[in-house]
Write a structure and sequence with these properties.
Length: about 240
C-alpha cells in the first residue's frame, strides 16, 4: 500500500507539481489549499506525513502546526520562507519534525520525506515493550511517550522521542550536535541550524528541567549535550 502524504499549500502550481512528482515516486498525495481543507482531509482518512506551508494567506500556519500536534503524532514537515529563522524555531517548538526553506528542489523534499518516514518505520520496529527509566521518569519505547512519577503519560513528537531516546541510551556521555541532528533528521547540522537546540529546549520543558541551570539535560560547551542521570533498562 502506498504511503499517504497530505500537502497543504496555497500555491496551486506547487500543489500540482508535488502531486505529480511525489505521485511518480510511489506516494499517494492529497494536496489542499488551506486549514479548512486540511481538517476535512484528516477527518476523512489517515496520512503518513503532512507537508505544511507556514505562510498560508488565510490561516496561521504555526497555529495549524500546533493543532496538528495536539490531535495526532503524525510527522510534520514545514515549508518556510528562506531565511525566516524565527518561524522555523517556533514551528519546531510547536511539534514539527523537520523543515525545508522555499524555494527547494523536489528531490530535496523527497529526501526529507523519505528520511522522516524511514525514522517512523524504525520506530515502529521498536514497538516490543521496552522502557528507559531515569530520575523518576519512564520513557516508553513501545508507546513513544514519557511518564512522570505521578503516572501521567506525556505524548512526544517523533523528534522529541528520538532525541530523548538517544540521550538516555548514551547517558552521561556527550553527544555532539551533529550526531543529534543525524538522529533527529538524518542530516548534518548547518552552522546556523538550531533544530537540535530547539528540540533540547522542548525536552527540558517536558522534564521540568530548568533551562538556566539544567540538572538532567546538560549543555557541554562547544561539544554538545548529555543526559546526566543513571538509566535503568527493562525489556
Amino acid at each position: 500500500m502506498s504511503q499517504r502524504l497530505l500537502v497543504v499549500d496555497d500555491d496551486a502550481e506547487l500543489r500540482t507539481l508535488l502531486e505529480g512528482y511525489l505521485g511518480e515516486q510511489g506516494f499517494e498525495v492529497i494536496a489542499v489549499e488551506d486549514g479548512t481543507a486540511l481538517r476535512r482531509a484528516l477527518d476523512a482518512g489517515a496520512f503518513d506525513l503532512v507537508i505544511l506551508d507556514l505562510m498560508l494567506p488565510d490561516d496561521d500556519g504555526l497555529a495549524l502546526c500546533r493543532e496538528l500536534r495536539a490531535r495526532s503524532r503524525i510527522p510534520i514537515l514545514m515549508l518556510t520562507a528562506r531565511g525566516d529563522e524565527l518561524d522555523r524555531i517556533i514551528g519546531l517548538e510547536m511539534g514539527a519534525d523537520d523543515y525545508l526553506p522555499k524555494p527547494f528542489h523536489p528531490r530535496e523534499l523527497l529526501a526529507r520525506i523519505r528520511s522522516i518516514l524511514r525514522r517512523m518505520h524504525e520506530l515502529a520496529g521498536e514497538r516490543p515493550a521496552r522502557e528507559l527509566r531515569f530520575a523518576g521518569w519512564t520513557l516508553s519505547i513501545g508507546m513513544r511517550h514519557l511518564v512522570g512519577a505521578d503516572g501521567v503519560a506525556i505524548p512526544l513528537s517523533t523528534g522529541e522521542f528520538r532525541l530523548l531516546q538517544a540521550l538516555a541510551e548514551n547517558a552521561n556521555r556527550v553527544m555532539s550536535r551533529d550526531r543529534l541532528m543525524d538522529v533527529l533528521s538524518g542530516r548534518e547540522a548547518g552552522p546556523f541550524d538550531r533544530s537540535v537546540d530547539v528540540m533540547i529546549s522542548r525536552l527540558r520543558r517536558r522534564l521540568n528541567d530548568d533551562a538556566r541551570e539544567p540538572e538532567l539535560i546538560k549543555t557541554v560547551r562547544n561539544e554538545g549535550y548529555l543526559l546526566a542521570a543513571k538509566v535503568e533498562r527493562s525489556a
